[in-house]
Structures are given as structure tokens and as C-alpha cells.
């Protein structure tokens, strides 16, 4: 049955028309499960009923007419209980409701599964049989799998159906990724290239074309491996077989040989792929064996994957003519970094969540973003959008009065920004005279944010990974040193804390792919660099070399979970320092030994603070990962975004514990996670006793303003009051009121 299941899922998900997809599904399911009837009932809220939407087995005339009121019949019961029901003889069930127009008298056994997407019930999928019998376990899971796939198709079709109408205007809901409002036209980024879109052309260097082809071949193999892994984890493990077929084709010497022959004939790599794939697709499409016919789709898809890689490799930077709202299925930090700053007004991403690195980068750049809008986006192209980065809403083709209102809010925001800018040169000091340091998180964007920010007291976190991600090999020591030197020089006389390479998790190097089932729990940060001392040493030496004569460098280690990692890193830092110092001595230079700190972001460190204290010079709390790991909530996963909460009572307790320990062991401590740049977050942290905060460029001024409007003695009382509430909403509400009372409510929502 697995083969059938896979085939049905593929067909249904590939169909562009919902009615067609549903008819196909009921027909194929009836035959695959060898039952007498398969039907789909869709929930219609307006009519308060389930409507028969497709059937193979009941009277076709009843489709679109026969209705079962919500809460009635077995279909209603399934919808209500949101669970599968398996009955040997449904007609004897007290809830049974006979649908005369559907002619279902003959059917006795009944198996129904709810069709649910993101907690919303769209309908019920039912199979029935004349014979009295209980359905087997295998049949139950077959139906549940189909229902879950159908749910996604229906959800997308619903959104698409709405968008299809050119006059449709409405609101799509996602997650607030980066605050602010943006109004503009959608620019949909499509990573896939169709075979038919490419014009075949010849080149003059077959050796180069072979090399390009070899490179993408490896990349696509790896891409398929990691997709297969993802599918293995999910319910749809059957779909792994699809990727195995692809892998098989990719390793087929005949297929690969044909492409190479075309390259030898002078075609450039992409054109060779196009020519071979199109020929093969045409051949397979005419075959009478349905299995072989199916291979045409596999080859087309595979060819497009190869082409996409080849074409994007050739592409120059992305330069839209007018400033746009970037809309894409998945937005990576590198994609954002590729678009020139002035051309990017807002960001909308189907995948990702509030603490994906793409969202962090958007916040750093001050670009409003909405994440996790689970829709297919082609139909948004060129439509007018409003991105509300406070509420996480995306307004499509808003009506005039709504546009006017948002423009007014934007004007108010601009006024607020002007107000915040007035404190640029002022000290970051509370009304009761307590000084706090406001430092910059830099490095995520391509230009590394090194533009001198005189409002900041230094750099609290320089993320070094982006320069590694934006190229096709590890940067050399000299390249790195030049980059680090620019940053250290820009902040001469102010501290700069550089974090060693933190790749893994959601930050992948294109030339060093890591395929893991659980990347955030895997080979990431210090774990990877300690396993590769050659990479780590080069980076440390580059940092040290860059600091010569400036003496403002400190080094920080990411993802530390145990003390041996710190000891090993310290030994490597000693060695790097000795070697660079020896070289520098040759020209009478000296390199100051930098202070060494760790990020506190893996919860195991919370229980080792006394032992950690003597090993390092400072701590910096990475609340993004600390929250993710303490709560076991993926910071990138939109589905669990509502339970990712940096102000969860457990996180608050951990933060209090860290500041208490820092005081006890006289360890300088700062916060460099996103919480530090959050107006409520910073108040909470100040109330706990934190005095050093590192945040993105666009937050520095507003946080300085907030600091200058607050008093630490008041904040301590506010914290006590807030802690008396069990729920995060109420906890934040108490601090929210504090902001409102000072005229700063606009920091939490659109407008003033
Ligand atoms: C953090 O985890 O809080 C942090 C600052 O590091 P990153 O977001 O780069 O993982
Ligand atoms: Mg982190």
C-alpha cells in the first residue's frame, strides 16, 4: 500500500485545482483500499454543516448538495472529537444519520478521519464498505496520512482561492518577525527554475562547464539527502522513496553520460541539463507503463533542481528596480543580505519564526518582517501589501481607508524615531543615575554594520559567520584579519567582542554542508571548531593579528556546554597568541592577550557557573538559544512559535540565577540575545540587575531612550508585582503599563 499512498499524495499535492485533487483522491483511495466508497465532507461555517464535496461510491448528484449539520451524524462526531472513528456497523451507532440523497443505504462499515490543518478542522475523510467489519490498523493509518496531506492542500487552496480574485483584499496572519510597518509591492522570490524557461546556449570552455556540473551534482545529492532526512522524521516517511529514485537517477551513468556528451558538444552546463532532461521527459511521457510514465515527472523535477543551482550560481546580485517587499517561501539571512539596502522595504516569509537568523537580521536592519505565513505566494506578485511587523499581519490589497490609516501610523513612527534620535549623544543612564552599557550586535549583514555607531558603547557581539557563509570556501587568515581589523578600527577605544565561528544549526556553509537529523542539537559552534582546530586557529590568529595596536578585542565562545570545551579553546587561544606574538615581535609589535568569555546559551552551564567562573573573564547570555534549549522549542519553527517565550517563568528564573552568580563571582555579564533589544525585555533585565546589553543597530537609540525614562528602584518594584502573575501575558502587561505611562506604548505596537 505504501506505493499507492505515495502516488496518491504526489498526485494530490501536485494538482493545481482543489476539486480535481479531491476527485482524484477519492477515486484512487477507493481502489487502493479496496473499499466500496470514499468521500470527502468539507466544513462550511456559514451553513453550519459538513458538505459532501467529493465521492466515489455515493450518488454523484449529491456532491455539493448533501449536508450533515455540525455536531450531527458520525461525520459531525468526528469533527467534534477531532479523532478517527472506526465502526464495523455504522447504521447501529446512535449518532448515525442517513443521507437519503447520497444513497448510502448499502454501506455498513465506516472509517472516518478528521482533516485538520494547524488546529483547524477543514472536514472529514470517510471510507465505507458494504460488508460488516472493523477496519485494520494499517487502513486507519493510511486514511489518517491521507487526511493530513489533504488538509495542507485544502488550506493552501483556500488561501489561493482567495488570492485568485484580483480584487481580493484581506489579511493573512503570521508571526511578528521584525517591528515596523512597510507598504509596497510584493516581489516574489522564486528559487526554482523551469526547464522551459532556459534558452539553450553554447560556451567555449567545456572543462569549466564539466567542473560546474560536477559541483552542482554534489550539491543536489546533498540537498536530496537532507530532504530525505527531513521526510524520514515526519509522518510522510514513505516519500523518502521519491528521493531514493532521484538519487538513483543522479548516479545513473547513462543519464550523467548524456549530459556530459552535450557539454562536450559545446553546450554550457545548464543547457546540457535542459536538453537531456527535455528529451527524456518526452520519451517517458509517451510510455504505456504508468510507472515509467511517472519517471517523466521525476526527471523534470530533478533537472530543474540541477538547473536552479546552475543558474543561481551565474546570477549577479538581486537588484529590483524599485524598493520592494520581499516575499519568499523561505528567506535566508544570505538572501536578505544580497538585496541592496535601499531596495528592501519589508519581508514576508512562509517559513521561519521570530528568532530565525533571517528575522534577527531584519530587525538589525530595521526592516519590518512577518514570518511563518504558510501560503503559496505566486499569486501575491506585484500586489500592494502592508507588512505589520508588530502584529505579524500581512494585509493584501488593502482598501484606501486602511492604507491611509497605516500611512498615518508610519508617520507617527517616524516621529518617534526622531524623538529617539535626540538621545544619540546622551549618556545611557536611568533617571536615578544608574549607568548602563548599550553595545551593538553586529556581523549578520553583509556590510557587517561597522558604520560607526556613536550611540553605542562598543560591540557586544560580533557574529563572524556571515563572511564565511557568503563565499565558496573558508576565508583565509589574511582575508579574515582584514575584515576584523575594519571592525576593531571603527570602534577604536571601545570594546569589541568577537564570537568565534558559530555555524551549524540554521547557519550552513555552502562549501561545508552538515547533514544532521537534529542540527540545533548537533555539530554546532564550539563543538565543530574544536573538532577542526585548523579552522579555529586560523580564525583566532586572524582576530589577534587584527587587534595589533588597537587592544580592544575580546573573544567569545558560542554553544559551550561543558568546561572541557572552554579549557580546550583556551589552550588553542594560548597557542594562537604565542604564534602571532612571535611573528609580530619581528616588527616590534605586541598583541595584547584578549579577554576570553563564553556565551551562556546551553542550559547545562547554568549548573556549572561556580566552576566556569575561574576559567573565563566574562559571560554573555544568549537568550535566543537559551530560551530554545530551556523550553525545547525550535527558534525557527513557526508552528511552535507561540510557545517560544523568552519571558517564560523558567527563562526568567535562569536569568536571575545568572546575574546572582555573576555578582557572587564578580564576573562581568551582558545580555546579547534579542531580549536585550526588546523594550519590555530590557526593563525586566534592568530590574534583575543587568547593566550591559548588546543589541542590533536599529534598537540602540530606542532602548537608550527607554533607559533614560526609567528608574531602577521603580523597576525592582514593577518586577516584584509582575512576578506575582503566573501568565507571561500578565507579566509583560505590568511592564507594558510602565512603558505606556511614559508615552512609550508605541514601542509595542504600530503608531505612537
Ligand atoms: C543567542 O543565541 O542568543 C545569540 C545571541 O546567538 P545567535 O542568535 O547568533 O545564536
Ligand atoms: Mg546563539
TrEMBL record:
Q: Which InterPro entries match?
A: GAF, GAF-like_dom_sf, PEP-util_enz_mobile_dom, PEP-utilizing_PTS_enzyme, PEP_util_C, Phosphohistidine_dom_sf, PTS_EI-like, PTS_EIN
Task: Drop me one GO molecular function for this one.
Answer: phosphoenolpyruvate-protein phosphotransferase activity
Q: Where in the cell is it found?
A: Cytoplasm
Reactions catalysed, as given in the entry: L-histidyl-[protein] + phosphoenolpyruvate = N(pros)-phospho-L-histidyl-[protein] + pyruvate
Q: Which UniProt keywords apply?
A: Cytoplasm, Kinase, Magnesium, Metal-binding, Phosphotransferase system, Pyruvate, Sugar transport, Transferase, Transport
PANTHER family reported in the protein's UniProt record: PHOSPHOENOLPYRUVATE-DEPENDENT PHOSPHOTRANSFERASE SYSTEM, PHOSPHOENOLPYRUVATE-PROTEIN PHOSPHOTRANSFERASE
Q: What is this protein called?
A: phosphoenolpyruvate--protein phosphotransferase
What species is given as this protein's source?
A: Zobellella endophytica
Amino acid at each position: 500500500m505504501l506505493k499507492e499512498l505515495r502516488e496518491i499524495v504526489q498526485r494530490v499535492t501536485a494538482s493545481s485545482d482543489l476539486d480535481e485533487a479531491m476527485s482524484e483522491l477519492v477515486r484512487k483511495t477507493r481502489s487502493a483500499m479496496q473499499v466500496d466508497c470514499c468521500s470527502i465532507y468539507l466544513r462550511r461555517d456559514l451553513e453550519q454543516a459538513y458538505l459532501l464535496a467529493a465521492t466515489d461510491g455515493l450518488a454523484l448528484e449529491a456532491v455539493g448538495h448533501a449536508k450533515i449539520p455540525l455536531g450531527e451524524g458520525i461525520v459531525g462526531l468526528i469533527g467534534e472529537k477531532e479523532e478517527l472513528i472506526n465502526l464495523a456497523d455504522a447504521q447501529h451507532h446512535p449518532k448515525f444519520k442517513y443521507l437519503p440523497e447520497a444513497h448510502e443505504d448499502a454501506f455498513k462499515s465506516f472509517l472516518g478521519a478528521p482533516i485538520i490543518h494547524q488546529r483547524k478542522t477543514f472536514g472529514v475523510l470517510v471510507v465505507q464498505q458494504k460488508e460488516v467489519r472493523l477496519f485494520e490498523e494499517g487502513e486507519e493509518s493510511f486514511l489518517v496520512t491521507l487526511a493530513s496531506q489533504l488538509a495542507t492542500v485544502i488550506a493552501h487552496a483556500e488561501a489561493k482561492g482567495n488570492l485568485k480574485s484580483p480584487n481580493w483584499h484581506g489579511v493573512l496572519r503570521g508571526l511578528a518577525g521584525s517591528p515596523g510597518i512597510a507598504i509596497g509591492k510584493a516581489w516574489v522570490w522564486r528559487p526554482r527554475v523551469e526547464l522551459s524557461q532556459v534558452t539553450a546556449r553554447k560556451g567555449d570552455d567545456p572543462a569549466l562547464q564539466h567542473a560546474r556540473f560536477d559541483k552542482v551534482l554534489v550539491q543536489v545529492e546533498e540537498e536530496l539527502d537532507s530532504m530525505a532526512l527531513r521526510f524520514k522524521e515526519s509522518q510522510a516517511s514513505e516519500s523518502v522513496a521519491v528521493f531514493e529514485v532521484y538519487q538513483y537517477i543522479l548516479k545513473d551513468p547513462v543519464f550523467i553520460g548524456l549530459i556530459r556528451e552535450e557539454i562536450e558538444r559545446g553546450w554550457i552546463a545548464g543547457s546540457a541539463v535542459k536538453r537531456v532532461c527535455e528529451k527524456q521527459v518526452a520519451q517517458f511521457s509517451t510510455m504505456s507503463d504508468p510507472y515509467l510514465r511517472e519517471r517523466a515527472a521525476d526527471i523534470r523535477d530533478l533537472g530543474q533542481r540541477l538547473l536552479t543551482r546552475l543558474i543561481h550560481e551565474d546570477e549577479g546580485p538581486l537588484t529590483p528596480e524599485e524598493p520592494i517587499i520581499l516575499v519568499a517561501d523561505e528567506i535566508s539571512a544570505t538572501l536578505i543580505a544580497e538585496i541592496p539596502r535601499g531596495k528592501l522595504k519589508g519581508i514576508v516569509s512562509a517559513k521561519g519564526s521570530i528568532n530565525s537568523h533571517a528575522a534577527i537580521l531584519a530587525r538589525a536592519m530595521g526592516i519590518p518582517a512577518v514570518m511563518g505565513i504558510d501560503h503559496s505566494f505566486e499569486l501575491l506578485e506585484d500586489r500592494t501589501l502592508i507588512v505589520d511587523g508588530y502584529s505579524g499581519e500581512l494585509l493584501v490589497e488593502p482598501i484606501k481607508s486602511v492604507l491611509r490609516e497605516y500611512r498615518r501610523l508610519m508617520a507617527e513612527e517616524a516621529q518617534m524615531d526622531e524623538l529617539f534620535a535626540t538621545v544619540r549623544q546622551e549618556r545611557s543612564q536611568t533617571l536615578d543615575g544608574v549607568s548602563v552599557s548599550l553595545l551593538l550586535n553586529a556581523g549578520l549583514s553583509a556590510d557587517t554594520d561597522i558604520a560607526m555607531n556613536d550611540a553605542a558603547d562598543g560591540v557586544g557581539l560580533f557574529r563572524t559567520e556571515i563572511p564565511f557563509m557568503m563565499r565558496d570556501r573558508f576565508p583565509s587568515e589574511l582575508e579574515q584579519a582584514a575584515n576584523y581589523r575594519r571592525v576593531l578600527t571603527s570602534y577604536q577605544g571601545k570594546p569589541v567582542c568577537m564570537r568565534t565561528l558559530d555555524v551549524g544549526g540554521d547557519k550552513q556553509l555552502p562549501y561545508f554542508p552538515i547533514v544532521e537529523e537534529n542540527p540545533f542539537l548537533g555539530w554546532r559552534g564550539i563543538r565543530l571548531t574544536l573538532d577542526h582546530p585548523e579552522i579555529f586557529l586560523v580564525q583566532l590568529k586572524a582576530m589577534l593579528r587584527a587587534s595589533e595596536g588597537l587592544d580592544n578585542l575580546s573573544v567569545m565562545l558560542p554553544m559551550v556546554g561543558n568546561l572541557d570545551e572552554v579549557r580546550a579553546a583556551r589552550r588553542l587561544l594560548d597557542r594562537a597568541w604565542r604564534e602571532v606574538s612571535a611573528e609580530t615581535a619581528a616588527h616590534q609589535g605586541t598583541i595584547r592577550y584578549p579577554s576570553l568569555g563564553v556565551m551562556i546559551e546551553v542550559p547545562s552551564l547554568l549548573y556549572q557557573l561556580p566552576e566556569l567562573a575561574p576559567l573565563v573573564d566574562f559571560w554573555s547570555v544568549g537568550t535566543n538559544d537559551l530560551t530554545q534549549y530551556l523550553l525545547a522549542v525550535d527558534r525557527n519553527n513557526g508552528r511552535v512559535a507561540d510557545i517560544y517565550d523568552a519571558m517564560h517563568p523558567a527563562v526568567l528564573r535562569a536569568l536571575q540565577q545568572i546575574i546572582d552568580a555573576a555578582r557572587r563571582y564578580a564576573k562581568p555579564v551582558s545580555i546579547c540575545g534579542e531580549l536585550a533589544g526588546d523594550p519590555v525585555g530590557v526593563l525586566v533585565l534592568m530590574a534583575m540587575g543587568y547593566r550591559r546589553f548588546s543589541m542590533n543597530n536599529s534598537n540602540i537609540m530606542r532602548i537608550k531612550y527607554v533607559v533614560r525614562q526609567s528608574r531602577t528602584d521603580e523597576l525592582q518594584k514593577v518586577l516584584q508585582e509582575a512576578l506575582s502573575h503566573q501568565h507571561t501575558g500578565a507579566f509583560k502587561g505590568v511592564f507594558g503599563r510602565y512603558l505606556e505611562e511614559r508615552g512609550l506604548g508605541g514601542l509595542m505596537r504600530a503608531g505612537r
